[in-house]
Amino acid sequence: MPSTPFGSPTPLSPSPGQKVVSKTLSATPLTVDLAGRSVSTWGYDGSVPGPLVRATAGDLLRLTLVNQLPADTTIHWHGIRLRNAADGVPGLTQDPVRPGGTFGYEFTAPDPGTYFFHPHVGVQLDRGLYAPMIIDEVADPGGYDTEWILLLDDWIDGTGTTPDDVLTKLIADGGTATGGMGGMDHGSMGGMSMGAAPWGDAGDVTYPLFLVNGKPPGDPDVLSAKRGDRVRLRVINAASDTIFTVALGGHSMTITHTDGHAVQPTQVSAFYIGMGERYDAIVTLADGVFPLVAKPFGKASGGQGLALVRTGSGTAPGPNANPSELSGQILIGSQLQPASSSLLPVKTPDATVDLALQGSMKPYQWGINGAPFGKNEPLTVAAGQRLRINATNMTMMTHPLHLHGHTFALPSGLRKDTVLMAPMQSLAIDLDADNVGDWMIHCHNIYHAEAGMMIALNYRR
Ligand SMILES: [Cu+2]
User: Fold this and answer.
1) What's the gap in Å between 453 CA and the centre of ligand 1?
2) What is the Å distance from ligand 1's center to 200 Cα?
3) How far is CA 357 from the centre of its chain?
4) Which of 235, 221, 210 is nearest to 155 (CA)?
5) How many A from CA of 299 to the centre of ligand 1?
6) Whole-angstrom distance, CA of residue 451 vs CA of residue 428
7) What is the 3-state secondary structure (H, E, C) of 148-176?
8) Per-residue pLDDT at 197
9) How many angstroms separate the alpha carbon of residue 187 from the centre of ligand 1?
10) Ligand 1 centroid vs 302 CA: distance in angstroms?
11) Could you give the CA distance from residue 361 to residue 450 in angstroms, rounded to a whole number?
């Protein structure tokens, strides 16, 4: 087998009038300061999160990855409906980028929305290798004064272990050496009235810290604006193993988009966000200092992510701020209703396939359709088909199911590219096969994915 079966992707030339956005991203080892604790990790361009990549829908992006890591890597542009050769999956769409190597990702970003990017190699996502990507609408949507991007993360790298060590231990111990799993009664966690806790056993790894915009609660990011400002929040869950509940103390939020797609505006006190999901919300700011809290769901270790919103004077809430909004009704994102602009055209599916999420903590084995990735049979589709995927979660854990290169519609019509599937839940998801290539469908718990909870969706040629 040749060592470079994929070679370099064909360069793209801009079409007449098309704007080009170029950027170089260097993946390097670095040290970050987490409230006085110095940790070694890997990141993009020397910071965690990495730099924002921003363009307008229809632009041609030319993004060059320079790999200065001591390991192979790639970049996956999460949620973008891009050409297959730029999707960043080693062995499926490209060769891994070797240490010292570079790779040019060139693609048109067709859809506005909130996205992020990260490696698609091993468990590198659980280092500091993630950054936001915003694709703006061609016409200014208006309706808000300012915008804040909030990247949520669970952090363990450099705290005496690495994500690779964590995975090795999960497999060796069959999960027994970690907290937050197997037999915990999450229904009574913290005595909070969470209703029927929807996610069962959530999370395999015990994290010492949770970050918002790269900062722990002991040294939180401070977001400043004026009282009365309308702010667009773009919330991205870049964590590897943590579902968060997000609330802004003293405020309600109006959810406007999920995974880039417009929804019927919905006012909430708090919402769940699974790994790989994004939610946009509009908030009208009150006067004072308020905690924006990302509370991990079902983690035995405690702790939380925190940022501060400041519009006036007042005492800053402490690291353990517990806004009452977290104790009320919490939105499950898949229950949002789509905006009419986000609907797929009405069409009967041309083909149906089954997708069963399977596995267990003990032994630590995860797979789809009877086997781990590499041993399972790829799903196939013909270009032009409306494909229905009958997805079933046959495990006792929640899994965020993520599809590359497309978005899908839930039975309600809600468009997503990542959806939380609760234990034993079934969900029919429809997609239009309009982007030829070989694509991944996988759990966005990066430890589950790396242990085999992935499957390919290949276009028949
Ligand atoms: Cu999973």
Assistant:
1) 7
2) 12
3) 18
4) 210
5) 15
6) 25
7) EEEEEEEECCCCCCCHHHHHHHHHHHCCC
8) 60
9) 20
10) 21
11) 14
**Spatial contact of 378 and 456, defined as CB atoms under 8 Å apart:** yes
The alpha carbon of 366 and the centre of ligand 1 are apart by a number of angstroms equal to 8
Distance CA 313, CA 287 (A): 8
User: What does pTM read for this prediction?
Assistant: 0.94
CA of 190 to the centre of ligand 1 (A): 24
The answer to whether domain 20-139 has CATH 2.60.40.420 is yes
* Identity of the residue numbered 401: L
pLDDT digits (tens, 9 = 90+) for 72-120: 999 999 999 999 999 999 999 999 999 999 999 999 999 999 999 999 9
- SS3 label, residue 86: helix
Q: How far is the CA of 193 from the centre of ligand 1 (A)?
A: 25
Report the CATH fold assignment for 343-459: Immunoglobulin-like (2.60.40)
Compute the distance from residue 296 Cα to the ligand 1 centre, in Å. Answer: 16
Q: What is the per-residue pLDDT for 176?
A: 46
- CA 263 to ligand 1 center in whole angstroms: 26
Q: Domain spanning 147-340: which superfamily?
A: Cupredoxins -  blue copper proteins (2.60.40.420)
Residue 163 region by backbone torsions, left for phi larger than 0, else alpha for psi between -120 and 50, else beta: alpha
165: pLDDT strictly greater than 60: yes
Taking only the tens place, the pLDDT of each residue in 419-432 is 999 999 999 999 99
Report the alpha-carbon distance of residue 295 to residue 308 in Å, rounded: 14
As beta bridge partners, residue 330 has 270
| Residue the block writes with tokens 């991990």 | 296
Chain segment 16-60, per-residue pLDDT in tens: 999 999 999 999 999 999 999 999 999 999 999 999 999 999 999
The domain locations on the chain are 20-139, 147-340, 343-459
Rounded to the nearest 5 degrees, what angle is found at the Cα of 262, between the Cα atoms of 324 and 137? Answer: 115
- Cα gap 332→246, rounded to integer Å: 11
Identity of the amino acid at 109:
A
pLDDT > 90 in the chain, percent? 87
Ligand 1 centroid – CA 279 distance (Å):
20
**Beta-sheet strands, E only, within 311-372:** 330-331, 351-360, 365-368
Q: Quote the ligand 1 centre to 448 CA distance (angstroms).
A: 5
